[in-house]
Structure formats: C-alpha cells, structure tokens
Amino acid sequence: MTISTYKILIVDDEATTRDLISSVLSSKGHRCETAVDGAQALDRALAETFDAVITDIVMPEMDGITLTREVLKINPSLPVMVITGFSDEHYYEDSVNAGASDFINKPFSVAELLARFQKMMRDHEISNQIMAREKELEKIGAEMIAGVQHDSMQRVAALKKEIESLRKNLQAGHAA
To answer: Which pTM was predicted?
Structure first.
C-alpha cells in the first residue's frame, strides 16, 4: 500500500500549535505551509492548491468557520479539519454546517491528530474514487443509450424500407 503525501495549509494564530502540527505532519512526509489567521490563509488558498486545510476556529481577522466556508467555495471537496481550544458545542455544529470534514479539540495528542488526519484523507480519497466511478458509470450509460438509439434508428430505417417495399409489391399486385 502506497502512502500519499499531501500539501497542507495549517492555520492558527498560536505559533506553538502551528509549529507542532506542521512538525508532526512534515515528519510523515507531508508538505506543510502555515498562516497566522483566516485572511492570510484565504489569500494562500486563492494563490495555491492545497490537499487539506487544518484551521483553528478563534483567530483575529477571519475565524476558522468563515475560512472553512470560503475555501470550500474555491474547492468544494477540500478536506478541512477544524481545531479549537473551546469545548463549546456550537463550535462543533458551526464547523459541520460550514462543511468541515473533521473537528478536534485542543489539547490533542500527536497520535489523535495523526489518526484523525489520516482518516480524513482516506475518506477524501475514497470519496474521490466513488465520484470517479460514478462519472465512469454515467459515461458508460450514456454510451449504451447512444448505442441503443443508433441501433434502434437503423432498425426503424430498415423497417421503413421493408414497409415501402411491401407497399410497392401490394400496389403492383393490385395493378396486375
């Protein structure tokens, strides 16, 4: 089994958290870029392509919920993990409603971060495979319909010719 490497945007106004997440994911072969707030992160997301975003919720300039909504406008299938030091239930609901793929509370262990990140990315890859297969099925279905339509049109044309031939024979029989 091959392990994919990803380009990840890590967004947190706390340098310690940004550096920890970046260090942990970089040690697994991922390329990490950081931003200090949602506004800076959105600028990066508009200029570059990322495979995932990990963002804090409470930040100056633009919070993580707003950032999640905005990056998903750019790339609707982008996996976004939201992290927060606040255990308020509405943050979780807001994150899910904004389209976040996962939610993790601070403090978190390195093992929990890695497990959740890997699951989020695996789910994303499976979702992409499902969408690709669905498109493949749609294409095959369209080709089959087109083939059936073509065959039907040929059969109809042959039947029309046969009917015309029979009419001519009928008319020739009546004339004789």
So the answer is: 0.77
